[in-house]
Amino acid sequence: MKEQLANIRTEALAAFAGAGSAQDLDALRVKYLGKKGELTAVLKSMGRLSPEERPAMGQLANEVRAALEHALEEQGKRLEAQALEERLKAEAVDVTIPGKPVKLGHKHPMYLALDEIKDIFIGMGFTVLDGPEIELAEYNFDKLNADEGHPSRDWSDTFYFDTDSRVMLRSQTSPMQVRAMETMELPIRIIAPGRVYRKDEVDATHSPMFHQVEGMVIDKGVTMADLKGTLNTVVERLYGKGTKTRFRPHHFPFTEPSCEMDVQCHKCGGVGCPTCKGEGWIELLGAGMIHPRVLEMSGIDPEVWSGWAFGIGLERTAMRRFKIADLRLIFENDVRFLEQF
Amino acid sequence: MNLSRKWLREFVSVDANDKAFAGAMTLSGSKVELTHDLGAEISNVVVGRILSMERHPNSDHMWICQLDVGRDEPVQIVTGAWNIHTGDLVPVALHKSSLPGGKKIEKGKLRGELSNGMLCSLKELNLDERDFPYAVITPAALLNDYKPLDPEKPSIPAGIQAGDKVSGPVVCAKMLEVMPLGDGAFHTCADIGPDGTVCPDTPCSNLHVGDLVAYNTKTDRYCTLEDLHAQQAEFPHCIPDGIFVLQEEGVKPGDDIKPVIGADDHVVEFEITPNRPDCLSVIGLAREASATFGQPLNLHTPEVKGGGPGVLTDLLDVETPAADLCPRYTARMVRNVKIAPSPKWMRERLRAMGVRPINNIVDITNYVMLEYGQPMHAFDYRYVKGGHIIVRRAEEGEELTTLDGNVRKLTANMLVIADEHRAVGLAGIMGGLNSEIVSDTVDVVFESANFDGTTIRKTALALGMRTEASAKYEKGLDPLNTLPAVNRACELVELLGAGEVVDGVIDILNYVPQPTVLKLEPEKINTLLGTGIPEAEMVRILRSLDFGVEGDQVTVPSWRGDVLRMADLAEEVARFYGYNNIPATLMRGQTTQGGYSPAQELERSLGAVCRACGYDEIITYSFISPTCYDKILWPAGYHARKSFQILNPLGEDTSIMRTTTLPSMLEILARNYNYRNKTVRLYELGRIYLPGGEDGLANEAKVLTLGAYGEDMDFFTMKGAVEAILRDIRAKDVRFEGPAGAPSDASYHPGRCATVWSGSNCIGMFGQIHPLVARNYGVDAELYCAELSFDELALAKGPDPEYVPLPKFPAVTRDIAVVCDEAVTVGALKEGIRRGAQGLLKEVTLFDIYRGKGIPEGKKSVAFNLVLRADDRSLTSEEADADVASILSLLEQELGAVLR
Questions:
Q1: Under a CB-based contact definition with an 8 Å cutoff, are residues B860 and B797 in contact?
Q2: Is the N or C terminus of chain B more exposed, i.e. has fewer CB atoms within 10 Å?
Q3: CA separation (Å) from B274 to A41, B209, B271, B600?
Q4: Predicted structure pTM score
């Protein structure tokens, strides 16, 4: 019997190791360990042994059973791993086949630029204002110190809705300065982006409708140095750290002193090239200290409060930001253009 | 404003090169747009003297010239021009030279003869006869150049000889002698056959010894083509073109041509802001340059000798009934004028500044305007009837023919200069043709006046004739400038020997300006600028601009009408202290809370969901054509057609403010369709402009517009996007219905459009665009659009989400398919299912609609998946079956839908 057990052990272990599939292995399990299996048969014949022999033989039989079960389990795991490996191999894909397309929409490049600007100013404590495009000349001109004779009031420059030149399409976002001064509590920090309209024929750099962002700060002790510091920060955020700027005197009826801000030409680094018309600088925006008369007209005492304001053309900013060569592309809305951004 | 740097140098000495000059002037406030070196394109072009000329052996029209160009050896150049003669000084483009327009000249052979360069015409030097009036070329009709139009019928016989008759008194003459007289004319002798020899002087410059020429025996003149009524083609080489023969003094062979023709100047183009009309002049810019470069300004006081015949007050009387529009009128008179071209230096300066020379008197007025910034006008005294100048408002409907030859119809708010009978000029804009300076003008009145800027601007605008003068007046000029300007004009008349200036000045001052005196407050200026500029530096800067400073009193110069208060002084100080020397600081003071308003947040999230659905953002014009409403089939008389109308639009297409965004979207869809873009999905959050807002303004409502066509696009794709938007904002109580019967429904396919509702509020409409509308936009594909009101979306927006516990117990699902009439909608079935359920139904999902085999005609089978669940226990199959039975019974009873 001892021999018998040893033979079963040897035979079964060899058979298990040779099993090539889970089914084969299961058949072997039945053959040796099943109810009618060989080991079971041996165990059943234990009754015929003497009581002295039984414990030793029983222990041996259990050892053999444990050994076979262990071997069975091991081989089972091995076969499973092998089968998995084969399946994964069979499931391999050509990774160069394109993915299933997900169509995402694109933000218009001009609004991408606008959102950058908004984020910068919001971070500096500005709120964003929205205002009418069909506007009173009173807000667009009078209260901005551009009186009756100002050339921008001409019908050749500005669109009007009545013969008295009272209601017009705003020619700038600056009337939002006045609307903010009249309605908001001091101190004020606002930007006001939006559409503006001027009587320009469409070409590569002009459009009768375009966009500006107005910005204004009014507080006690605000200086021209603050204007420079703030706008320099904005430009560095927009065009990268270390972007060089310069300020030039200019004229706007509603600021005094007035200035224009240039950024150093990104193409030539200031040496002069066709992009900057040889000047080394590219005009970016107009700004200035709010004219004391403008403050007065909106009921703010210029002896106590001072402020600065700026206006920036969005199309040009976006065109520079994304190297768009022709303004007409902005309003053409060709999806081949839109989907580049 | 163009500035000649040569002219500038007369007032201030600045050595900086163009780039440095432009940079410094720009930073002190006079923005330079461009600089030009007038001679940049000209190189290696010199003055040459023609030493000898011989006819080219292999050409019937070319000459071989030997020229002295200041070198040891003469230079040979071949030319086809006929207006040159031995002894002439001419511009010579030598081997390896360049000319305006980028033309390069190199030596070469012309019909076998070496030519070491080119002789230049005026045109080749970028000049014309106005620049050098003496260089006009008058060709005679050379009979040896004659080519008959019809070879069968020549009007001049081939072998014509000296003395042969041409026609009438005109005979053939053979040139024996041609001698330039130095002033453009020639002394000649010619053989006219049996009648002997004639010796007329002639302006014709194409004659050379041996030429046969038409000669008129009656007038003793050589004939031009005009005299012979000949066509150019008959005398192909007798043309009024040729080499520029110089008559300049002190010019010798070898001299660089650039200074000779005034191309040695540099011109700087400034952008002058409207507050600085004083800088629209050489002197104004010289003052800025003087302050910028710290160089003294050398102004000149005009000196007039006078002594012309007569007494001014007897000759001229000026009245200004329109005194309110004419603050000052200054006039002087010049008599016995000799109209002639002005001298070269004056012509060069005018030309450098972009003004065409005309004649000495007109050129003087332009010269003074450029130098002083004071517009001037010259009248022919003969046509100022009664010697009486009246500055008055025009009569309504009065007519005046201006110098440009146009008849102007005037209105009563325009200002004219008139004599006793009629207007002779449009004040401050343009003179009248009736008093123009002409070649036989004898006596001249110089006007140097100050007019009301607004009146001039409005008149110029109304008549569409903005001129140099009106552009200056409209900005408001210095009334103190009229007198020095008129004196300068008279001084120039004397300098040019153009006439005799009558003593005295007529000067009517209707308004005496008081100088502006401001208090200098250095600490306030520094507080505004954020600087610490010492008071002494401020005083130095202000004085450098001719502001008077006494203690803390600043007297503003008369030409600086723009300086009215402390902030203006601060700008003057800052400009010359340097904007770039002002520190850059960050704002102090109370911090404010930045951020977006709820409406702005909603705009952002709507944009984000549209993009997530695959829609690209567009920007369209706010104005549209009135015909757009027809194109989208809005019925006539529909109240929403009432739009804000631009009274002065760029064109009909952009003349009204849209009350719907649909045409804008359709236009962009159509454009993309024409570009053959296959699949297009677009959105815009844009405004419409509805009449009836506050203050007569618009109610500018925002509309979220979607537009799409192409692959996978149908009604339900568009509906899916609309649903996604509504889901994203957690819109309350949403439902879809058919069109609501509005006139604007006409834009949509009647069976494929829907309205979207939140409770009782209509959010908008969407669906397929009516095929006729699509066709109106040139599109033969299905277009889909949605128009959702931003305000309604904001109202429909649900509250922030609140967590609902996840189900603890399993659900039971059941699929049912019912057969019903076609007319029963899925919506009604769903609604029926909801109502029929007894509290266990959690979800209903449509999964199939079937028509065809097994289903009777006019019926359809609609299949739903139902999810049933109780919140507090596991459902039994029986409980679920009971709910489904209840649902089916309701569907059958109310909708006639039976289980399939």
A1: no
A2: C
A3: 117, 62, 9, 38
A4: 0.83
